[in-house]
Amino acid sequence: MDLQSVQDLKGVLRSDFYHGYATAAAQIEGAWNKDGKGISIWDTFGHTPGKVSDGSTADDAVRSYEFYREDVALMKTYGVNAYRFSIAWSRIIPLGGCDDPVNEQGIQYYSSLIDELIRNGITPFATLFHWDIPQALEDRYGGMLNQNAYTPDFVRYARVCFERFGDRVKHWITYNEPGVYTLAGYAAGVHAPARSSFRERNAEGDSSTEPFIVAHTELVSHGYVSRMYREEFQPHQKGSIGITLHGNWSEPWDEEDPLDQAAAERAREFEISWFADPVYKTGDYPASMRAQLGDRLPRFTAEESKLVLGSSEFYGMNSYTTFFVKHKTTPPDINDHKGNVEIHDENRHGIPRGEESDTPWLRAAPEGFRKLLNWIYKRYQMPIYVTENGTTAKGEVAPTPDVLDDQFRIKFFEGYVGSALARAVKEDGVDIRSYFAWTFTDNWEWAAGYSDRFGCTFIDFESEEKKRYPKQSAYYLDKLFTHLIREA
Ligand code: GBH
């Protein structure tokens, strides 16, 4: 666990750099129907047989709803100065709608969590939406498929959060990975609300249209919430507001082939610029998407475009891995949302995209992360807040000394933070202001259930109290950031 490879990087990160862990309410809280909480689409999903690979639900998850004080104390021993959590909409407004009642017990929970963080010198970053829309809104009008009905409900929910927490929360994120929400939920149909064109999997849905409609709703409603915050709250609360986008690095399969280079750029645009161009660059979708999707891609009205462009005060970035991308010679499938490309694990020379984790899509590829930081910074010219990055590791099944000494994860962080991120700042001049590791503890990894362990803390899910066991990577990150961050 030495810092050999980063010796030359002492103090390269700004003295006010934020580092800590990111989590999501539905993955950690448990208490799914306690203290007045309404059910979310993820409660429904977890309770539907056959949806989650290990058959589990998030009913208890890691019980952070009860153990948040102990968790903050543990986090403090990990040396963090910030924590990114999400608020469960259905705890705040159980039925979700703009005329539905507020649940004071839900408010109380987040208020106590925020106080506990601040008492411990940990800066709260709050995400309003990390995929858990109240089920009642899905039932009432189809959730985000209905932009006009949905938008006032999301705006009112955000208003309640700003009113009740904004005196203490100064970093707001409207949406976590709007692209993953829509693609996994409405294109692949493997996440809630489980809609797609594929009838063997989902009873309803249309993968060729719905993902683009839902994405449009997310962008426009984000725009309204951001405007409200900046007009009504920011002048006295003095916080900032933005959105967090997902994105992996797309590397050409054959780096010499202009068609593969173009395919990789197109893949980045479909994955990232779909959201980032409207918000940071043009107020519209990328031309490559319009060319392939035509009228299936919604159009921004002039008013929407103006609202969305400039609506995020920083670039919230989640990234995990790299893929090789090869051009196709056949026309795009109606359900394609990746830019009509082939995705590969190896490039033309047979070089793999990275070392395998315990999660099929995720391979350790720090160099791709550095390239992506550069690509985003160059295209969008915004300060970057890395809001998620992390990994699973093979063989983490019990809290044995070997497993807790998680060298694979340590090596992952050494590469992604110690090499890629710190060098992107020092040598490439990228403006990076935070790093949140995914994640604090093992948790409920959505449709993968409890099998994919992303935590820097091992959880014994069999035990009643979901016992926590620190992994060495948590202490490594502490040492690493102490070294990298400039002293004030
Ligand atoms: C993030 O999504 C989420 O914000 C977080 O909640 C989650 O726990 C974390 O990452 C780890 O997964 O199975 O081949 O169809 C990351 C983006 C998008 C990655 C969906 C996995 C499914 C690929 N994820 N993707 S596949």
From TrEMBL:
Coiled-coil boundaries: none
UniProt key word Cytoplasm: no
Record key words, sorted: Glycosidase, Hydrolase
Gene3D superfamilies: Glycosidases
GO MF: cellobiose glucosidase activity
EC number: 3.2.1.21
Substrates-to-products reaction catalysed: Hydrolysis of terminal, non-reducing beta-D-glucosyl residues with release of beta-D-glucose
Gene Ontology terms: biological process: cellulose catabolic process
Domain of life: Eukaryota
Keyword Endoplasmic reticulum: no
Function (record text): Plays an important role in cellulose degradation. Shows hydrolytic activity against several glycosidic compounds.
Family per record: Belongs to the glycosyl hydrolase 1 family.
Protein name: beta-glucosidase
Taxonomic source organism: Penicillium canariense
Lineage: Eukaryota, Fungi, Dikarya, Ascomycota, Pezizomycotina
